[in-house]
Amino acid sequence: MITVEEFKPLLASQAQDFLKLANGLLELNPEQWSQRQLYHLYQSTTDLETFLDDYGARENRSLFPVRELVAICRWLAVGMSSLVHLDSRIPFYPASQQEWTETVLSKQVRSAALRLGEMIMRALAALQATWAEVGLGWPDGVLRVDSLGAVGDLVRLPRDAVEQHVGDTGEDHSSDAAMIASRFIRLVKHMERVNPVRVEGLEKLRQVVAVHCTEAQSRRFEARVHNLQSTYDSLVAGSQEEQKHPGLLAIRAAASAAYHCFEAVTALVHLFERHHLEERRGADGAPLLPVEEFLEIVVNKCVVVAYDGLSRTLPTAQKLLDELSERCSRELLIPSGVTLHARPISLIVSVVAHHRGAAEAEIDGERCSAASIMQLLVLSGGHPSARKIRFYGEQEVLEDLAALFEAHLGEKGMDRFPPRLAYLAPS
Q1: Most exposed residue of 95, 267, 291, 391, measured as fewest CB within 10 angstroms of its CB?
Q2: What domains can be seen in the chain, in order of their start residue?
């Protein structure tokens, strides 16, 4: 065990860089803060919160308030940093709705980032007061992180390596591009179920966050958008398809904007759920953060704006998918004695995944993605007596699906599969 008095010198030493960085932030207004400063604020608060937790500050009456204020600064920094990064990238995003990007996305993101900056300043001021109450000295020195890097207008080098890259490979990435468009469409359709719309008032905002935007939900959507980004950058970026179809860049831009918005949402909802903001008071005794405005940033300025950008790009993605895919269809008879349960459905999904194309399934006029086990299970479960299923997609996918159905979807053994389905055999 260590007493609070014995711990204070250790804490003061560990916190020096953070406290001086805080001094540098407090002498400016949030509009002057740089991305580099916010990164260092996040890193230093993460290190300090970990240090406090390692010594048990979470369970100590004297130091718990210090620990909480450090954590609040940490997660506000993540949220603001994500939005500042997005704001700096917006001018380089080719958008399908340029006017909306300039008049709505840019303004909403910027205003939300600056308001979070003001909340950080208030949290830092509360930490100063609490630091003194504990009997710790706050240093006078200033760490001006912005001096470590140039700050100013973003400029870009000529994009002359892309053409050379394309000329060297000459690979056909049309199926990859179609897959990106299809995944983007499914992403937007998935978000449509939440029906993100602007809401006013603390209780309604609180309800939206509790039902549709928990930390776990936000993390899942953030990961899904990030995976789409990564797949695009691995398979499509710099390809001939990207040059031939400008809509691909619009899809990438909309996904990137949504990712950074949800990156901010995850951090802010984590803060709201874990750190009981309504109980926190500032140095003046008033509520530390305006909870209604805080949640308004989460819901209206991040979630709703992200969905708006995605949905505005949806027609571009659908048009692109139609251009890139051979929109063939084929009706297949479900073999006698076979039902579409998890095992055969997983083989259908494996065929679609193997071709990395877009495919849909339809029973009695109801459609779903043929790349989703869950959607196919729901579709087949809703039509238990159906004996036919129609698939839409590229010719190669349809031919392999037809071969799979002819082989009784594996229900009579995978040894009946033709050579063209060898990729379905267990490795």
Answers
A1: 291
A2: 4-139+174-323 (no CATH), 328-424 (3.30.1340.10)
